[in-house]
Amino acid sequence: MDEKISNDDKKVLLVKDANDGKVKAVTGMDEKGNIRTEEPTANNQNSLFAVNTNEAMLETFFKKMAEQVQQPSHTGFFLMTEKVLDKLVKIDLDPHELELHRITPAEYLKEVEKQNPKQAQSGGKETSQSTFQPMDVSKIDQQELQKYGINASDLEPHLKAMSYGHKSPHMIPLNPELETGIRVPTKGRVSLEEQADGSLKIIPHYWQEKPNLDVPFHGVLLNDQDKENLRQSLNAGRVIELEPSPGQKIPAFVSLDRLTNKLEALPVENISIPNKIKRADLSEDQRLRLGAGEKVLVEKMVSRTGRFFDGYIQINASDKKFDFSYEGLDRNRYAKENKEVRRQQKENAPGGESEKQKQLFIPQKLLGIELTEKQQEFLKAGQATYIKGMQKDDKGEPFNAWVKPNPEKMKFDFFRWNPDKAQKQGAKVKPAEESKTQVAVNNKGNTNELTKNVKEPLKQGQQKPTENQFKQEARRPAAKKSGIKI
Length: 486
Hints:
Residues 274-326, 363-414 form the DUF3945 domain. Residues 136-215 form the DUF4099 domain. 27% of the residues lie in helices and 24% in strands. By secondary structure, the protein is of the alpha+beta class.
């Protein structure tokens, strides 16, 4: 490549498909390393430079391509600036001119390692690394767990999500040690940060009772509209130019963490707006509005089960993903089409229990809990697996249960014992024994002699009121007597 490209220049990466030889522009990459592309034409040229083609993204991309040495999906890579692409588009991507800008994965990675060996060893920036390649959770610094008073068993259900750079899906108990040596019991979400030596540092996100939107956030005061948007949808609804230090301006999306009540920021440069959402094409206007932090209506998306649906999507800076909402939309708009989809799925599915089982989608997350690979394997095989901390409970309290696929009814059944080993199965939804009282009180309003006057939800595994709950109820008017209903 004969052109000197500055790190500050906007760049585009072109690739040549190994099968048809066509040259296309890279617009993104999924978690498995599969790239998304778009035709580099004069009409969409401007949108191509909205892609975050920074050094970290290129490094991650070329590492993935280097893994395909035996069976490459692309045979050429060409990196250039906007000015050069404009010239090449006008001459119909002349192959001789294009060749001047060829770049190879091996040479690029070698150059990166030469310029910054520490970054090469640690995998580059956290955001790009965590997006495309999971972190090795076995490298979590155990001293960090002790420092924040984290029980490993509380963290385990969330590790898969955290390995991809996300915060724990739910809050866990924290007991951090202060400089004075005193520990303060609290709760919050946690995430991981990869260090130069390969170890993983714990990043706590502490819970606070309510959002504080009236103090400066990274050097900027939110306006009234920002505050209203955050209260209504948890997202500011626009890109805000933050100033974490004097003179440093960082355009970012700002969202409110729904669990911790704390504000979170995500730099705009760390987000690439895709061309499709759930198989629905995004127009240039939709992509621009999403990139501006707005909520956008996307029609006729396709769910994992093949059903059509409409929804509003918006970038959530707190969870680094798209939020989906459906307020005011006709949820039955595609009823006839979805009925036809279901009919065709039944017709195309051969008989037999094992084939029916394939139609029941096994999710990565069930009732708020990330499933381990082993749990997913059991469910895919039609077997029961034990899952802790689910939130079927109406009051939001977690419970434990054995879960088994029901292919005939296309749903999951819950049991308090292992149905594969038990001689007799009980009702369809049965929490584990330690959660039986909790779910009966919280969900159904059932009581026994110990719980008949308790007004607040029981905690996971709680069988009777705490001493504090007894004292609180003693101050209330006496309740009517009731029989044992659990």
